[in-house]
Amino acid sequence: MLIRFKPKEDIFIAGTDEAGRGCLAGPVTAGAVILPKDFENKILNDSKQLTEAKRDLLRPVIEKEALVFGVVHIDPTEIDTINILNASILGMHRALDQLSTRPGYIIVDGNKFKNYQDIPHECVIKGDGKYLSIAAASVLAKTYRDAYMEKIHEEYPMYNWKKNKGYPTQEHREAIKKYGITKYHRKSFRLLPEQYTLDL
Questions:
Q1: Any known ligand binding at 150?
Q2: Which of 10, 96, 165, 185 is the most exposed place for a label (fewest CB within 10 A)?
């Protein structure tokens, strides 16, 4: 069962996470959430551990019960320009920018982050499976990104983004081989196995 992060002081805690980092197409999407101190939910977990139905069930609950939340897409052009790690961190910063309540502390899923304003932060490996606010951010990031991929699927149905969400499935790679790439593909990524990797 996930728990609330409890710092020594009585301050607002923002949890932040991203989705879509390993995809070949589409944005990397980041979420940031401040939950009320009495928030509880028995279903909420790391978005990767939840079914799509449970994520879709949780999204409106989080949006309604969170004190504040923010979700941001970083598009493939920006990912190609600054690399995926920097794009993920930038997305989390921009999601934090959307919070109308300033957090006193930030907890981040993973092991890499850059200082945000002058707010102290802590990186937590697999934090989306440990703390409620990071899990909530992961669910928002994942559901918003999935909805975006389903929308652009209508524009390029041959890649089946509705199903694979831009991840490097065999079907997705075969479609790239057959049809080439789109404006939504990340050109700095190894889109096909025989392609040379670009060290950006």
A1: no
A2: 10
